[in-house]
Design brief:
Blueprint lengths: L14 H11 L5 E6 L4 H20 L6 E7 L2 H6 L14 H8 L6 H7 L1 H12 L7 H23 L2 H16 L1
Parallel strand pairs: 1-2
Helix pairs in contact: 1-2, 5-6
């Protein structure tokens, strides 16, 4: 619908995939990265990791790269507001105590939102993309193309002698008939 690039890492995003994102952007315009991840310490860290990796690639390879990383789902507020189910953080999660002290939620998978409230997830994505999408652009391009074609036709008509073309057609028809 929006003609955007989608990258779907499994777990922590690799340096290779972040490099591909920077390379695909080609520094033509600011790169806006929307992060959709689980609501847990790892998911909370992902936008930070992506930002740091993009910063490194900008510093090393793409000095004109402008980027912004926006975590759009699954936030702690979304988990609380939507009353999404959580599962206990693993006992091996080293950040568990700090996470619980700061956010007072366990871990909630993005799958919970995708399965239980798919329309909400879709709306979150639409709302995030809206400031960057010009819904009137296609119509304006079509109108500009139609205007250009009309001007081109008028310019050609000014250069063409229609009486001479009619005469050539008539002569050609006569030769074909003979």
């Amino acid at each position: 619908e929006y003609d955007v690039d989608v990258y779907l890492p499994n777990g922590e995003i690799s340096d290779t995939l972040v490099h591909q994102m920077a390379k695909d952007n080609g520094c033509k315009r600011p790169l806006i990265v929307f992060c959709i991840s689980d609501c847990d310490p790892s998911g909370h860290q992902m936008p930070v990791s992506i930002g740091r990796k993009l910063q490194a690639f900008r510093d090393l390879l793409y000095p004109d790269l402008e980027f912004e990383v926006r975590p759009i789902a699954l936030t702690v507020d979304q988990v609380k507001d939507l009353d999404l189910p959580s599962t206990p953080l693993k006992e091996t999660e080293r950040r568990k105590a700090r996470w619980m002290a700061k956010f007072s939620v366990e871990q909630t998978e993005i799958d919970a939102l995708a399965q239980l409230r798919p329309q909400v997830l879709k709306q979150i994505v639409h709302d995030a993309l809206a400031p960057f999408y010009d819904s009137s652009l296609d119509g304006r391009v079509y109108e500009a193309q139609a205007d250009w074609l009309e001007l081109a036709r008028e310019a050609l008509d000014e250069c063409v002698d229609h009486d001479e073309i009619a005469s050539i057609r008539a002569d050609a028809k006569e030769v074909v008939n003979e």
